[in-house]
Amino acid sequence: MSVGVSVRGLEKAYEDGARRVEVLRGVDLSVTAGERVAIVGPSGSGKSTLLHLLGTLDRPDAGTVEIGGQAVGELTGSRLAAFRNRTIGFVFQFHELLAEFTALENVMLPGRIARRPLGELEERARELLEEVGMTRRSDHFPSQLSGGERQRVALCRALILDPPLLLADEPTGNLDPVIGDRVFDLLVELQERHGTTAVVVTHNPEIARRCARLLSLENGFLHDGNR
Amino acid sequence: MILARSADCGPGLPFAAVVALRYLRSTRRDSFVRFLSLVACGGLAVGVAALILSLAALTGFQDALKEEILSRTPEVAVDVPPDRDAAEVAVAIAGVEGVLGVRRSVEGRGWILSEGRVRSVLLEGFEGALPESYAEAPSRGPGVYLPERLAASWGLEAGDRVEIASNRPTLTPLGPQPRVLRRPVAGLYRAGRTEQEDRLALPLADAGRLLGPLTERVEVDAGGLERAQRVATRLADVLPEGVTVRTWRELERGLFFALRLEKSVMFVALSLIVGVAALALVADVHLVIAAKRAELGMLGTLGASPSALRRVFLLFGAGLATVGGGVGLALGLSGAHLLDRYRLLRLPPRVYFLDHVPFTVRLADVAVILLVSLGLSLACAVWAAGRAAALTPVEALRR
Ligand SMILES: Nc1ncnc2c1ncn2[C@@H]1O[C@H](COP(=O)(O)OP(=O)(O)OP(=O)(O)O)[C@@H](O)[C@H]1O
Ligand SMILES: [Mg+2]
User: Fold this and answer.
1) Distance from CA of A154 to the nearest CA of B (A)
2) Which helix (H) or strand (E) holds B15?
3) Who's near B136: CB < 8 A, 6+ residues apart?
4) Closest partner residue to A57 among B26, B301, B306, by Cβ?
């Protein structure tokens, strides 16, 4: 299952007292279902901002975001939360696993929010953890895991409900190159197997190279990247 | 905090409850959160226990005081003005249904004199047997009854003669003359423990001679405090104009009002402890929200709705309040029980009318205490939890 993403004329500025930072100044983007797209750009160019807008975590000043035909600007409150829960999986540079929950429980969280039956949910979580080689770590708390292991757990958590869209913001940025590659391998493998649409923000040229399409964000606009 | 591992994450528990329970358990780890949680919980426990204990002590005292004072208060009192014949009224009263006995009495001020010493006393004229309020006074024939204390300090014994003077003069052609009677001491009585004033009992006829003409009182035995009102109503229907009928409740209205007021003031004052604890709870919830900011942002991105996040902290606050309130309840109830049962708080026997502090727990008091404490804490938790709902995921994810 996957969805297309369509973005039109997206604008976003941050106002900080007298200063006004125009981060996005009219971003257009179309991602077809099942595609894997990389977004690159200098630090501070607004990659995270764009990803947050795609992920319905923030609202644009102008422009629209459509995910699978749904204009997300029309959703608010718990309907928006439910949409996010069902449709989008996030992986961030910092894993943000819940410290009080074991790896397995962290993976199950989106399903608990969606009130899925626990038995099924746990089975699925164990499968995912096995796919990323974390079976023996499933009852450990985040503080007992290495950075790479945590990021693998975060990846499983993002995918537990089979979201049609995966948004990753420098998923390997915090990991050493070898582990980072390994995590990204897993991401690609899972994404391809499940046919998930993926937008990946990255600084890593190696990762960018492995995406079907490369876009670069500069001066508030999104350009087709040169490979 | 004190939650067992098995208690949480049971199958089917709502998401918000699961997270709230984990956060409660995690307060053990973060020393700052632990400290504030302890203050909130402990403050609530102390407040609830203090309220239960002090209201129980107050109730115990008040009950003892009421009992003492009511033993000297007639169940129903009928006041007969001087222009009516009190004896006739007394006969009429005795015939009313529910009246078990009547006793006429008068009251006034005067002095007792003996060998040049004088003391102001309350004069009470009685009819028939000596009233019960003159406890332990064996009669040695006709005469007056004095408090033991007074007799001891003046060196008087039964049979000695004393003079009783009234504050009412008799008008004679030579001018006003004091009314004085010389009578033997018939017996001594032990004064009640809350009495401030010396009372002196003398036969009704003597009292009439000293004090009359005056309003006479007919004390009515209605067969119990609860029956007084019914009997009083019946009496009011039967008796002529000008005669007033009052029950013990009306006679001691000032006392009961003062006692209720005392209790209310005590309650409000001690509720402040609970108020402070509730504020600590607000600070605690805010602190946990701040500490878990990034996690809450992550939960938002995973699709937890703002109201679910609010519920997490509402439950968190409610959990702390329940633990604190429960501990306070247990401490207060068991404390009151032990202190009362074993009379642990002694009072110097000659100073006060009780030799220990009695504790009487009223269910209604406990209910109000719990309602106020938990209500206040929950209101504060609702207030504090609103902050979790107001957090947007992006805001929470930025570091
Ligand atoms: N809440 C905010 N208030 C003010 N300015 C902000 C805010 N969030 C982001 N910015 C600014 O917007 C710009 C884009 O930020 P963003 O995080 O999207 O960049 P980025 O491309 O992800 O950078 P990096 O590669 O370093 O992660 C930056 O200049 C940043 O300072
Ligand atoms: Mg960024």
Assistant:
1) 11
2) helix B15-26
3) B189, B190
4) B301
Query: B293-333, pLDDT tens digit by residue?
Result: 889 999 999 999 999 999 999 999 999 999 999 999 999 99
- pLDDT (tens digit per residue) in B76-102: 898 988 888 888 888 888 888 888 988
Q: Is B254 on the interface with A (CB under 8 A)?
A: no
Contact criterion met (CB < 8 Å) for A98 and B22: yes
Give the 3-state DSSP-derived string for A26-80, with helices as H, strands as E and coil as C.
Answer: EEEEEECCCCEEEEECCCCCCHHHHHHHHCCCCCCCEEEEEECCEEHHHCCHHHH
For residues B310 and A214, give the distance between their C-alpha atoms in angstroms, rounded to a whole number: 40
Q: Is the pLDDT of residue A46 over 50?
A: yes
ipTM, 2 decimals?
A: 0.91
Q: Which residue matches tokens 């009515």?
A: B220
What pTM does this model have?
A: 0.78
CA atoms within 13 A on the CB side of B137: 31
Neighbours of A164 (CB within 10 A): 22
Domains of chain A: 5-224 (3.40.50.300)
**Amino acid in the structure at residue A116:** R
Residues of B in contact with A94 (CB under 8 A): 294, 399
User: Tokens 């009072």 appear where?
Assistant: B347
Are B23 and A100 a contacting pair at CB < 8 A?
A: yes
Q: pLDDT tens digits, residue range B188-198? A: 888 777 777 88
Fill in the amino acid letter for A61: D
pLDDT > 80? residue B136: no
Six token digits for residue B365: 């008091």
Ligand 1 atom 31, closest CA: A44
Question: Which is higher by pLDDT, B139 or B107?
Answer: B107
Q: Which of B26, B303, B394 sits opposite A52 (nearest CB)?
A: B394
